[in-house]
Design a protein that fits this description.
Tumour Suppressor Smad4; Rossmann fold; alpha+beta; six-stranded antiparallel beta sheet; globular; 2 domains; 30% strand
Protein backbone atom coordinates (compact mmCIF):
# COMPACT_ATOMS: atom_id res chain seq x y z
CA UNK A 1 0.00 0.00 0.00
CA UNK A 2 1.46 3.37 -1.04
CA UNK A 3 -0.96 5.72 0.67
CA UNK A 4 -1.60 7.40 -2.67
CA UNK A 5 -5.06 8.33 -3.84
CA UNK A 6 -6.69 5.86 -6.22
CA UNK A 7 -7.96 6.73 -9.69
CA UNK A 8 -9.83 4.63 -12.21
CA UNK A 9 -9.63 5.96 -15.76
CA UNK A 10 -12.72 4.88 -17.69
CA UNK A 11 -12.27 4.90 -21.47
CA UNK A 12 -15.12 4.82 -23.94
CA UNK A 13 -13.32 3.43 -27.00
CA UNK A 14 -16.05 4.51 -29.44
CA UNK A 15 -17.02 8.00 -28.25
CA UNK A 16 -16.22 11.26 -29.97
CA UNK A 17 -12.74 11.82 -31.30
CA UNK A 18 -9.89 9.40 -31.82
CA UNK A 19 -6.52 9.54 -30.09
CA UNK A 20 -7.45 7.36 -27.09
CA UNK A 21 -4.18 5.40 -27.24
CA UNK A 22 -2.26 8.66 -27.29
CA UNK A 23 -4.19 9.80 -24.20
CA UNK A 24 -3.38 6.57 -22.39
CA UNK A 25 0.32 7.08 -23.20
CA UNK A 26 0.08 10.63 -21.83
CA UNK A 27 -1.46 9.28 -18.64
CA UNK A 28 1.41 6.83 -18.17
CA UNK A 29 4.01 9.55 -18.69
CA UNK A 30 2.37 12.49 -16.92
CA UNK A 31 0.08 11.41 -14.07
CA UNK A 32 1.70 12.30 -10.74
CA UNK A 33 2.67 8.85 -9.45
CA UNK A 34 3.74 10.36 -6.14
CA UNK A 35 0.10 11.31 -5.61
CA UNK A 36 -1.93 8.71 -7.47
CA UNK A 37 -2.18 4.97 -8.12
CA UNK A 38 -4.41 4.17 -11.08
CA UNK A 39 -6.09 1.55 -13.21
CA UNK A 40 -7.55 1.85 -16.71
CA UNK A 41 -10.88 0.24 -17.64
CA UNK A 42 -12.58 0.24 -21.06
CA UNK A 43 -16.37 0.28 -21.32
CA UNK A 44 -18.05 -2.57 -23.19
CA UNK A 45 -21.63 -1.35 -23.62
CA UNK A 46 -24.02 1.52 -22.90
CA UNK A 47 -24.46 1.88 -19.14
CA UNK A 48 -21.21 0.05 -18.33
CA UNK A 49 -19.54 3.30 -17.23
CA UNK A 50 -22.22 3.85 -14.57
CA UNK A 51 -21.67 0.33 -13.23
CA UNK A 52 -17.91 0.88 -13.10
CA UNK A 53 -18.34 4.21 -11.30
CA UNK A 54 -20.76 2.79 -8.71
CA UNK A 55 -18.43 -0.13 -8.02
CA UNK A 56 -15.46 2.24 -7.67
CA UNK A 57 -17.35 4.40 -5.17
CA UNK A 58 -18.31 1.34 -3.13
CA UNK A 59 -14.64 0.33 -3.04
CA UNK A 60 -13.59 3.76 -1.80
CA UNK A 61 -11.78 4.84 -4.97
CA UNK A 62 -10.97 8.55 -4.72
CA UNK A 63 -11.48 9.61 -8.34
CA UNK A 64 -13.11 8.15 -11.44
CA UNK A 65 -11.89 9.91 -14.58
CA UNK A 66 -13.98 9.89 -17.74
CA UNK A 67 -12.08 9.65 -21.03
CA UNK A 68 -14.83 10.26 -23.55
CA UNK A 69 -17.64 12.63 -24.41
CA UNK A 70 -20.70 14.00 -22.66
CA UNK A 71 -22.44 10.62 -22.74
CA UNK A 72 -19.54 8.93 -20.95
CA UNK A 73 -19.33 11.82 -18.47
CA UNK A 74 -23.07 11.55 -17.77
CA UNK A 75 -22.86 7.81 -17.16
CA UNK A 76 -19.91 8.08 -14.78
CA UNK A 77 -21.24 11.13 -12.93
CA UNK A 78 -24.61 9.38 -12.52
CA UNK A 79 -22.83 6.59 -10.69
CA UNK A 80 -20.95 9.00 -8.41
CA UNK A 81 -23.68 11.37 -7.15
CA UNK A 82 -23.90 11.57 -3.36
CA UNK A 83 -20.70 9.56 -2.86
CA UNK A 84 -17.23 10.55 -1.66
CA UNK A 85 -15.70 9.65 -5.03
CA UNK A 86 -14.97 12.58 -7.33
CA UNK A 87 -15.48 12.85 -11.07
CA UNK A 88 -12.57 13.93 -13.29
CA UNK A 89 -12.64 14.46 -17.05
CA UNK A 90 -10.16 14.10 -19.89
CA UNK A 91 -12.45 15.30 -22.67
CA UNK A 92 -12.38 13.39 -25.95
CA UNK A 93 -15.94 13.64 -27.18
CA UNK A 94 -17.61 15.64 -29.92
CA UNK A 95 -19.13 18.32 -27.67
CA UNK A 96 -17.46 18.17 -24.22
CA UNK A 97 -20.07 20.47 -22.69
CA UNK A 98 -19.39 19.93 -18.99
CA UNK A 99 -15.60 19.93 -19.43
CA UNK A 100 -15.72 23.18 -21.36
CA UNK A 101 -17.96 24.81 -18.75
CA UNK A 102 -15.59 23.68 -15.99
CA UNK A 103 -12.62 25.11 -17.92
CA UNK A 104 -11.07 21.66 -18.32
CA UNK A 105 -9.00 21.91 -21.54
CA UNK A 106 -9.77 19.67 -24.49
CA UNK A 107 -5.99 19.23 -24.85
CA UNK A 108 -5.46 15.97 -22.89
CA UNK A 109 -2.05 16.90 -21.47
CA UNK A 110 -3.48 20.10 -19.98
CA UNK A 111 -6.46 18.12 -18.63
CA UNK A 112 -4.04 15.71 -16.91
CA UNK A 113 -2.28 18.70 -15.32
CA UNK A 114 -5.67 19.78 -13.89
CA UNK A 115 -6.05 16.27 -12.49
CA UNK A 116 -2.58 16.40 -10.94
CA UNK A 117 -3.50 19.59 -9.09
CA UNK A 118 -6.31 17.58 -7.50
CA UNK A 119 -8.66 20.42 -6.57
CA UNK A 120 -11.97 18.76 -5.66
CA UNK A 121 -15.13 20.90 -5.51
CA UNK A 122 -18.81 20.14 -5.05
CA UNK A 123 -21.12 20.87 -7.96
CA UNK A 124 -24.86 20.75 -8.61
CA UNK A 125 -26.66 18.39 -10.94
CA UNK A 126 -30.16 18.14 -12.34
CA UNK A 127 -32.90 15.54 -12.61
CA UNK A 128 -35.25 15.26 -15.58
CA UNK A 129 -38.00 12.79 -14.71
CA UNK A 130 -35.50 11.41 -12.15
CA UNK A 131 -32.80 10.94 -14.82
CA UNK A 132 -29.56 12.81 -13.91
CA UNK A 133 -28.11 15.50 -16.16
CA UNK A 134 -25.08 17.68 -15.54
CA UNK A 135 -25.11 20.27 -18.34
CA UNK A 136 -28.56 20.78 -19.83
CA UNK A 137 -31.84 19.08 -20.57
CA UNK A 138 -34.77 20.34 -22.56
CA UNK A 139 -37.45 20.10 -25.21
CA UNK A 140 -37.96 21.60 -28.63
CA UNK A 141 -35.45 22.06 -31.40
CA UNK A 142 -32.37 21.02 -29.41
CA UNK A 143 -34.04 17.73 -28.47
CA UNK A 144 -35.21 17.25 -32.07
CA UNK A 145 -31.64 17.79 -33.32
CA UNK A 146 -30.18 15.45 -30.70
CA UNK A 147 -32.46 12.74 -32.06
CA UNK A 148 -31.45 13.48 -35.68
CA UNK A 149 -27.79 13.54 -34.61
CA UNK A 150 -28.12 10.15 -32.93
CA UNK A 151 -29.94 8.68 -35.94
CA UNK A 152 -27.29 9.92 -38.37
CA UNK A 153 -24.62 7.72 -36.81
CA UNK A 154 -22.05 10.47 -37.39
CA UNK A 155 -20.27 12.31 -34.58
CA UNK A 156 -18.54 15.66 -34.42
CA UNK A 157 -19.51 19.33 -34.84
CA UNK A 158 -19.77 19.16 -38.64
CA UNK A 159 -22.52 16.54 -38.49
CA UNK A 160 -24.29 18.56 -35.80
CA UNK A 161 -24.13 21.76 -37.87
CA UNK A 162 -25.42 19.89 -40.93
CA UNK A 163 -28.49 18.75 -38.98
CA UNK A 164 -29.10 22.26 -37.63
CA UNK A 165 -28.86 23.85 -41.09
CA UNK A 166 -31.01 21.19 -42.74
CA UNK A 167 -33.80 21.41 -40.16
CA UNK A 168 -33.56 24.80 -38.46
CA UNK A 169 -35.93 26.94 -40.48
CA UNK A 170 -38.40 24.13 -41.22
CA UNK A 171 -38.88 23.18 -37.56
CA UNK A 172 -42.36 23.94 -36.17
CA UNK A 173 -42.28 25.39 -32.63
CA UNK A 174 -44.66 23.90 -30.07
CA UNK A 175 -46.76 25.45 -27.29
CA UNK A 176 -45.68 24.62 -23.74
CA UNK A 177 -46.99 25.32 -20.27
CA UNK A 178 -44.23 26.10 -17.80
CA UNK A 179 -44.53 25.99 -14.02
CA UNK A 180 -41.46 27.09 -12.09
CA UNK A 181 -40.61 27.29 -8.40
CA UNK A 182 -37.74 29.31 -6.96
CA UNK A 183 -37.02 28.27 -3.39
CA UNK A 184 -34.59 31.14 -3.00
CA UNK A 185 -37.25 33.85 -3.15
CA UNK A 186 -40.41 31.73 -2.82
CA UNK A 187 -41.55 32.71 -6.31
CA UNK A 188 -43.91 30.51 -8.33
CA UNK A 189 -44.89 31.15 -11.94
CA UNK A 190 -47.22 29.62 -14.49
CA UNK A 191 -46.61 30.72 -18.08
CA UNK A 192 -47.63 29.55 -21.55
CA UNK A 193 -45.09 29.89 -24.36
CA UNK A 194 -44.91 29.03 -28.00
CA UNK A 195 -41.24 28.16 -28.07
CA UNK A 196 -38.51 27.08 -30.46
CA UNK A 197 -36.94 25.37 -27.46
CA UNK A 198 -36.89 25.35 -23.67
CA UNK A 199 -33.55 24.56 -22.05
CA UNK A 200 -33.03 23.78 -18.36
CA UNK A 201 -29.37 24.45 -17.62
CA UNK A 202 -27.07 23.52 -14.80
CA UNK A 203 -24.02 24.56 -16.87
CA UNK A 204 -23.66 27.33 -19.41
CA UNK A 205 -23.42 25.41 -22.67
CA UNK A 206 -24.56 22.46 -24.74
CA UNK A 207 -21.01 21.73 -25.90
CA UNK A 208 -18.77 23.04 -28.68
CA UNK A 209 -18.99 26.44 -26.92
CA UNK A 210 -22.69 26.94 -27.73
CA UNK A 211 -23.72 29.00 -24.68
CA UNK A 212 -27.44 28.43 -24.16
CA UNK A 213 -27.31 29.80 -20.57
CA UNK A 214 -24.29 32.14 -20.32
CA UNK A 215 -24.95 33.08 -16.67
CA UNK A 216 -25.36 29.52 -15.39
CA UNK A 217 -23.12 28.13 -12.66
CA UNK A 218 -22.78 24.55 -11.45
CA UNK A 219 -22.07 25.84 -7.94
CA UNK A 220 -24.86 28.36 -7.30
CA UNK A 221 -27.60 25.93 -6.21
CA UNK A 222 -30.04 27.16 -8.85
CA UNK A 223 -31.08 26.23 -12.40
CA UNK A 224 -31.23 28.56 -15.42
CA UNK A 225 -34.18 28.27 -17.81
CA UNK A 226 -33.73 29.63 -21.34
CA UNK A 227 -36.69 29.96 -23.71
CA UNK A 228 -36.11 30.81 -27.36
CA UNK A 229 -39.30 32.13 -28.92
CA UNK A 230 -40.06 31.54 -32.61
CA UNK A 231 -37.96 33.64 -34.99
CA UNK A 232 -37.68 34.20 -38.73
CA UNK A 233 -34.85 33.63 -41.21
CA UNK A 234 -33.61 37.22 -40.89
CA UNK A 235 -33.23 36.86 -37.10
CA UNK A 236 -31.57 33.44 -37.22
CA UNK A 237 -27.94 34.54 -37.90
CA UNK A 238 -27.94 36.98 -34.94
CA UNK A 239 -29.25 34.28 -32.59
CA UNK A 240 -26.62 31.83 -33.84
CA UNK A 241 -23.81 34.36 -33.29
CA UNK A 242 -25.07 35.25 -29.81
CA UNK A 243 -25.32 31.56 -28.94
CA UNK A 244 -21.63 31.12 -29.76
CA UNK A 245 -20.26 34.30 -28.17
CA UNK A 246 -22.16 34.06 -24.89
CA UNK A 247 -24.52 37.02 -25.36
CA UNK A 248 -27.76 35.14 -26.11
CA UNK A 249 -29.62 36.63 -23.15
CA UNK A 250 -29.45 40.10 -24.77
CA UNK A 251 -31.75 39.00 -27.62
CA UNK A 252 -35.41 40.04 -27.44
CA UNK A 253 -36.49 36.53 -28.53
CA UNK A 254 -34.94 35.05 -25.39
CA UNK A 255 -36.66 34.69 -22.02
CA UNK A 256 -34.67 33.55 -18.98
CA UNK A 257 -35.57 32.47 -15.44
CA UNK A 258 -33.75 31.07 -12.43
CA UNK A 259 -35.48 28.40 -10.41
CA UNK A 260 -35.07 25.17 -8.45
CA UNK A 261 -37.90 23.20 -10.01
CA UNK A 262 -39.77 23.33 -13.30
CA UNK A 263 -42.62 21.37 -14.85
CA UNK A 264 -42.88 21.52 -18.65
CA UNK A 265 -46.22 20.40 -20.11
CA UNK A 266 -47.02 19.85 -23.78
CA UNK A 267 -50.02 18.56 -25.71
CA UNK A 268 -48.47 15.26 -26.87
CA UNK A 269 -45.56 12.98 -26.01
CA UNK A 270 -42.30 13.51 -27.84
CA UNK A 271 -38.55 13.72 -27.68
CA UNK A 272 -36.58 15.48 -24.95
CA UNK A 273 -32.85 15.42 -24.27
CA UNK A 274 -30.53 15.16 -21.29
CA UNK A 275 -26.89 16.19 -21.82
CA UNK A 276 -27.45 15.89 -25.56
CA UNK A 277 -28.88 12.35 -25.56
CA UNK A 278 -32.45 12.02 -26.86
CA UNK A 279 -35.19 10.30 -24.89
CA UNK A 280 -38.92 9.87 -25.49
CA UNK A 281 -41.10 11.33 -22.72
CA UNK A 282 -44.77 11.89 -22.01
CA UNK A 283 -46.66 15.16 -21.97
CA UNK A 284 -45.24 16.27 -18.61
CA UNK A 285 -41.53 16.68 -17.81
CA UNK A 286 -40.38 17.33 -14.25
CA UNK A 287 -37.01 19.02 -13.84
CA UNK A 288 -35.26 19.93 -10.60
CA UNK A 289 -31.82 20.96 -9.40
CA UNK A 290 -29.92 19.03 -6.73
CA UNK A 291 -27.40 21.36 -5.03
CA UNK A 292 -23.86 20.13 -4.34
CA UNK A 293 -24.58 16.48 -5.09
CA UNK A 294 -21.40 15.63 -7.02
CA UNK A 295 -17.69 16.04 -6.29
CA UNK A 296 -15.57 17.04 -9.27
CA UNK A 297 -11.88 17.70 -9.98
CA UNK A 298 -11.81 21.05 -11.78
CA UNK A 299 -10.36 24.58 -11.76
CA UNK A 300 -11.87 27.30 -9.59
CA UNK A 301 -13.07 29.18 -12.67
CA UNK A 302 -16.13 28.07 -14.63
CA UNK A 303 -18.52 29.29 -17.30
CA UNK A 304 -17.93 31.57 -20.29
CA UNK A 305 -14.21 32.45 -20.52
CA UNK A 306 -12.74 35.73 -21.71
CA UNK A 307 -12.27 36.20 -25.46
CA UNK A 308 -8.50 35.74 -25.22
CA UNK A 309 -8.93 32.40 -23.45
CA UNK A 310 -11.48 31.28 -26.01
CA UNK A 311 -9.08 32.08 -28.86
CA UNK A 312 -6.26 30.20 -27.14
CA UNK A 313 -8.54 27.22 -26.50
CA UNK A 314 -9.68 27.26 -30.12
CA UNK A 315 -6.10 27.15 -31.41
CA UNK A 316 -5.11 24.38 -29.00
CA UNK A 317 -8.17 22.35 -29.94
CA UNK A 318 -7.52 22.93 -33.65
CA UNK A 319 -4.01 21.50 -33.40
CA UNK A 320 -5.25 18.59 -31.26
CA UNK A 321 -7.87 17.77 -33.92
CA UNK A 322 -5.14 17.94 -36.59
CA UNK A 323 -3.12 15.45 -34.55
CA UNK A 324 -6.14 13.15 -34.28
CA UNK A 325 -6.71 13.25 -38.02
CA UNK A 326 -3.01 12.58 -38.68
CA UNK A 327 -3.10 9.61 -36.29
CA UNK A 328 -6.19 8.23 -38.07
CA UNK A 329 -4.38 8.41 -41.43
CA UNK A 330 -1.26 6.75 -39.97
CA UNK A 331 -3.30 3.93 -38.43
CA UNK A 332 -5.22 3.41 -41.67
CA UNK A 333 -1.93 3.17 -43.61
CA UNK A 334 -0.51 0.71 -41.07
CA UNK A 335 -3.60 -1.47 -41.40
CA UNK A 336 -3.42 -1.29 -45.20
CA UNK A 337 0.25 -2.36 -45.13
CA UNK A 338 -0.58 -5.22 -42.78
CA UNK A 339 -3.38 -6.40 -45.07
CA UNK A 340 -1.10 -6.17 -48.13
CA UNK A 341 1.63 -8.05 -46.29
CA UNK A 342 -0.81 -10.79 -45.30
CA UNK A 343 -2.17 -10.94 -48.87
CA UNK A 344 1.37 -11.31 -50.26
CA UNK A 345 2.07 -14.12 -47.79
CA UNK A 346 -1.14 -15.91 -48.80
CA UNK A 347 -0.26 -15.60 -52.51
CA UNK A 348 3.28 -16.86 -51.86
CA UNK A 349 1.97 -19.88 -49.95
CA UNK A 350 -0.40 -20.75 -52.78
CA UNK A 351 2.38 -20.43 -55.36
CA UNK A 352 4.55 -22.73 -53.26
CA UNK A 353 1.70 -25.18 -52.93
CA UNK A 354 1.49 -24.88 -49.16
Amino acid sequence: MTGNKRIIFVVNPVSGTSGKNYILNLIEKNVDKNKYDYDIVKTAYVGNATEIAKSAAEQGVDIVCAIGGDGTVNEIASGLVHTKTALAIIPSGSGNGLARHLRIPTDPLSAIKILNKGLVQAMDYGLMNNRPFFCTCGVGFDAFISQKFAESGKRGPISYIENVLNNGLSYNPETYELDIVSERDGEEKHEVYKAFLISCANASQYGNNAYIAPMASVRDGIMDITIIEPFNAIEAPAIAIQLMNGTLSSNSRIKTFKCNKAVISRTKPGVAHFDGDPIQTGTKINVELVPGGLLCVSPVEEGVPEVEVRVQNFLTEHFWNMYNKTEEIIQENIQKRQRMHQLNLDILRKLQGK
